[in-house]
Amino acid sequence: MSSNNNNNNKVWLVSGTSSGIGLSLVQKLVLEGYKVTALTRSPEELEKQVSKDKIDNLLALKTDITSEASVKGAVEKTIQKFGRIDIVVNNAGYGYLGAVEESSLDDFKLNYEINLFAVMNIVKQVMPHLRSQGSGLILNVASYLAFTAVVGNYTSYIGSKFALNGFTVALDQEVSKFGIRSVLVSPGGFRTKFLGGNLKVAKNPIPEYKSKELEAYFNSVDGTQIGDPDKAALAFIKISQKDPKTLPSNIFFGSDSYQIMKSQIEKLTKELEENKELTFSTDY
């Protein structure tokens, strides 16, 4: 991709940049001449992985995305350094494997804290700037699991992504009148650190749920996922170069995500028609 486009003066703010798609996105954006604020737990480590001759394009900030004060400070530093924010990518995510019965309420809360409330926190802090400039694009990274449950014992993660789906769509209705779009990005499986070492598992598993077997399966497929993080990064950049008004409410990444969603839409359509008589029976 050439950096000679009229969009590379845009300023990006990206969370979840320590590894995977977030890291690939930051690397490519900086290389292409975009200005980027990367919210990360380890700014020094992130800076080491960015092209040295483009380091001035990067503002790597140690940020607790669950803290209002920390995120507000990061947003203010971005405005001070780059003057504006154009594109926000809420990429940080947390995966937890465990059936409801074998999980604590705190296990569930942490999933929602990262996957939903941290997104709300970032959106709340950037919105005054986007609204005052009359433009902006918010890309919330969910999953095809924000629409269907294809695996068991993943209830808290799937629930948090369903919630993020609803939040993103509702937010778009709320802010589009200000020239701002809120769009969901739903990846399939990508070769990142999300599975394997980064996946949290129930501490007190109940044998009947077979969470340990599912964990072993996840570990076995880790590294063989069809999705390429570098190509996902390029897809994000392509999205940013489109007219925001033409963007759909949801963009799927990966052929696996496409196939699963297509099957889910067909299933829901079939069930809707099969139950049409019962559905209509509740009208006056």
UniProtKB/TrEMBL annotation:
Recorded family membership: Belongs to the short-chain dehydrogenases/reductases (SDR) family.
InterPro entries noted in UniProt: NAD(P)-bd_dom_sf, SDR_fam, SDR_oxidoreductase
Matches recorded under SUPFAM superfamilies: NAD(P)-binding Rossmann-fold domains
Pfam families: adh_short (PF00106)
Entry-linked Gene3D superfamilies: NAD(P)-binding Rossmann-like Domain
Protein name, entry field: Short-chain dehydrogenase/reductase (SDR) family protein
